[in-house]
Design brief:
Blueprint lengths: L24 H31 L13 H16 L2 E5 L6 E6 L6 E9 L3 E5 L2 E2 L8 E11 L2 E14 L1
Antiparallel strand pairs: 1-4, 2-3, 3-6, 4-5, 6-7
Length: 166
Amino acid sequence: MTLPACSTSDKHPEPPSPTATTPSAPQDSKEQAARDAALTAWRGMDTEMVKAYHQGRASGTKLSAYAADKALSKIETELFEYRRVGVHFVGEPKPTAKVTAVDLESSPRRATITECLDTTGWTAMQGSKNVTSSHQIQRYTVTGSVRTIGTQWKVVDYTVNKERAC
C-alpha cells in the first residue's frame, strides 16, 4: 500500500517575540503561509485518498482539488489495480506529515513534505477477508512534492520508501 497521509500534530517554530522587529519578519510570515498552504493540500489529499481507498475509486471524492500530476496518477493507477483484484481498505493510517523545505523564489513555489506513515490501523480487504501482508512494513517514510498551480497549492508527486522503517 503506497498511501501518503497527514496529521495535525506538526510542531511549528516559536513565533518571534512581539518586541522583535526584524526585516525578515514579512518573509517569515510568507514562508509560514506557504508551509501552512502546502500542508493543507497534503492533508486534503490524505482525507480524500482515504475516502477513495475505502470505496475503491476516486469518483465522489475531491481528490483532484488537492492532488495533480504524478500524485493523482499514482493514486488512480493504484485504485484501478486494487479494484481489478477486488481489494478495498478499512480503517485509517496514522500520519505525521511536516513541511521540511519551502522554496518561495521558484515559480511555481514549491514545498517538500516528509512523514512517517503508520498503517497498522489500515487494512486491505478482499471481500470480508483481510489480505494485508504480514511481512509488509507498517511504518514507513513518505516524501512528497507540493507546488503552486496558479494560486493553489497541490501535491504533485510523492515517493513511498518501504525500505526505510520509521
